[in-house]
Amino acid sequence: MFASILDRPIHNGKRSTVYISKQESEFFALKASSENVWKKEMEVYRTLQSIPGNKFTRIQELLASGELPVFFKSRDSLHKFYILTRYNNLRDVKTWLSRIPGLSEAMRFKAARETLLALKELHLLGFVSRDVKMENFGVHITKDHRLKFYVYDFELSQKYKDIETGKPTVQKIRGSKGFGTTESAPLVQMTGSRRTFPVDDVEGWFYCLYHILCGSIPWDIGWPEPEFRRSTYATTYSGIRYFLNFIYVVGPRSVR
User: Using an 8 Å Cβ cutoff, are 84 and 65 in contact?
Assistant: First the structure.
């Protein structure tokens, strides 16, 4: 498996690096990450594997995981653990939408519905994503030409309730301020004002819905789309989102 990995990763981020592995006619995605990030994702998958039957069908299936062998050198030396999932013709929803011009309204509504149902499954499993965005939903074309949607990438996920008792967990989330993707993270995640709940994930999904139906998110680098401009809610978002984004791009010294 490791010998067949393509040298150039398809994703090279701070928290993880994703490589493609080919075995015969099958393609697989190998995500290398730090131990802390790997443990977060594995908590979701281990909870999923503990559930009998096939109740959760919209959470991407885990094929293998563990510590990377010493001979495999990830581009980031801190990325020492991996998870393996099936890749084949899987594409993230954002890429899928961009490659199909003239997509019908019915198909867009299907994408919206299926991504929401995938997010619901994660919540029923007892976790919040805390990084809901188009790139973290995938669509796969099955052998009988049906579209299958998945949610994946649980690097920032948190357990919010015990699936057996249904009781909320009491763990305090630290260091969550500003985490996530600036363009789609809910306000409470940008401010760190409280812990994240499913309703906040759904807020992020609404930005995905806007993108699916309208072709872009409602935020512009300087200001939201016209229908959002007179909203105090949107103004608050604009300031927080793009101040943080500005710092991320140019560095904190530039704002002194």
Answer: yes
| Alpha-carbon span 78 to 100, nearest angstrom | 37
Helix (H, G, I), strand (E, B) or coil at 20: strand
* Whole-number Å distance between alpha carbons of 207 and 217: 6
Domains by residue range for the chain, with CATH:
4-86 (3.30.200.20), 91-250 (1.10.510.10)
Alpha helices in the chain, H assignment, sequence order? 35-49, 93-98, 105-124, 187-191, 198-214, 232-250
Determine the residue type at 91. R
Mark out the alpha helices in 32-104 (DSSP H runs). 35-49, 93-98
pTM listed for this prediction: 0.82
Minimum mean pLDDT range among 71-80, 81-90, 182-191, 220-229: 220-229
